[in-house]
Fold this sequence. Notes:
The protein has 343 residues and is α/β, with parallel strands linked by helices.
Amino acid sequence: MNPFLTISIATRNRPEYLEKLITSIANSKKNTSERIEIDVIVDGLDQAATVAYLEKVNLDNLRFFTIPWQGVAGARNFGSKVARGEFIRFQDDDDTLDSSAIIEIIQFHKRHPDSFLLGHAILRDTKNKFMNWATGANGFLYSYTFMKSIPLSHWGRFWGGRISLPKRYLNDCKFDTTFDFMGEDTEWAFRFAQNNKLDIHHGKKVISVVERSLTIDEAVLRTVTQGWSNYKISEMHKQSHLEEVLRSNCATFADKQKNQILDEIALLLKHPFCRDVNFLEISQNLDLCKYEVESFLHGIWWRVIELCKSLGYLAAQDGLSRMELEELVRSSIELFPNEIVKN
């Protein structure tokens, strides 16, 4: 008998987070009698630590597959192909699931067998000021506040790392493997919605905890890729509302040259406030109120993010691959200055 639900996890070189996630799924599964399976797609043949951990996991419903590196779109296509569940939940490997998440997913799909369910993410590190900004006031990672203004049928609600859907929708509509890091979910949802009903619900009780906090340096690499992906998607879907939205999303500094943008990002990252955040201490030292310092810092972060999106868009426009773009950024900007380099 096939399982009702497959939880499909694409992972690459994060065994410490994967272990937390699988433990949380096992605990959440205890609250339902429905059969579920956990499929882990190990994306890349160079992940000995991840494979060693998975070989030790004592769960009858866990399977793992090691594939040559394909990126997120390819790994999710593989995951949907091997999944045996009637419904599939794509799950980011650096989140954990709340104890009631799985029963909530199952009950929803029993009531709504043709619909999608977007889970609700909360931060583990609730005091991390950059992550609070990135998921709230700015929302470049995600924002449930902004989502309230987006219709249920909108492709902007399809977030690939915490969504469940009927597996049959993936039989003929695959993720585009152009997108090996991000953008695959937006492009898939837009394409699917051209001929199908995209009915996405927000499951406020389907809680996943974001275990990993991004730094501003990691956000730089992520956001240039977002800009790159936006250009690729807009080229695929010319003369559409999607093209208009994605172009405008990256247009803030599109009139600049790539070298100008790189120089300005590098300069902003060197600002003492940008990486070392303690609003109260800073404001006391400068005799400023906390709100003034916070607003100033948010302004720096906003400019960095908008510059990165424009840079990625322009680089894709000039024909750079995503890997070439990342190499350009790493060679032009000192990222992770406090990172310990191991010989």
